[in-house]
Amino acid sequence: MTTRSDIAAIIDHTLLKPESTKADVDALVEQGKKLGVKAVCVSPSQLPIENPGDLTVATVVGFPSGAVKTEIKAAEAKRAVEDGADEVDMVVNLGQVKAGEFDEVERDIHEVKQACGHAQLKVIIESAALTDDEIVEVCKRAEAAGADYVKTSTGFHPAGGASEHAVKLMSDTVGGRLGVKASGGIRTGEAAVAMAEAGATRLGLSASEQILSELDA
Description:
Layout: H1 4-8, E1 11-15, H2 22-35, E2 39-42, E3 56-61, H3 70-82, E4 87-91, H4 94-98, H5 102-116, E5 120-124, H6 132-144, E6 149-151, H7 164-174, E7 179-183, H8 189-198, E8 202-205, H9 208-213
Parallel strand pairs: 1-2, 1-8, 2-3, 3-4, 4-5, 5-6, 6-7, 7-8
Helix pairs in contact: 3-5, 5-6, 6-7
């Protein structure tokens, strides 16, 4: 049985609302420590985080559209790592994915990975906006480019967030060689457990406290 502590250990406790303040981020960090989550994920302008304790610090680049030049994403990632990010969640260029320009997609990811240095890279593919074939190909290209994780969603795309189907497809494609992060629209303990059982090794959650309260210890 998947327990509360199992889920807490893979949560990226997330606050990416544009109106978030430093006080909001401070509260997020303190709540993350109390809940025993793996990481906190905030906008790059909120870095560095004061006293994160044992929490992993994650941020986002090219967010939420992914439709910026590669060199901008890379520069954003480099600065984020300099500001204390342990992990970087980048958004792919969806226009290139939909056009089948996968060599460009791979180059985009590779350049950002190089800019991350020691930090890990998660690649947000917006799975709800893609066909199964596109999901598989983007995951393959992310692996070839050196990414550490593939991630379902930003949580901001109108097509929707994570689904068990997408998580399983992504997990099957990367075969344990990369992590899989499910993010976007996960609002219940039942949904969090379902994503983990489908193959998610990390969960991006903004309602972490409520979700964990629904699970057995």
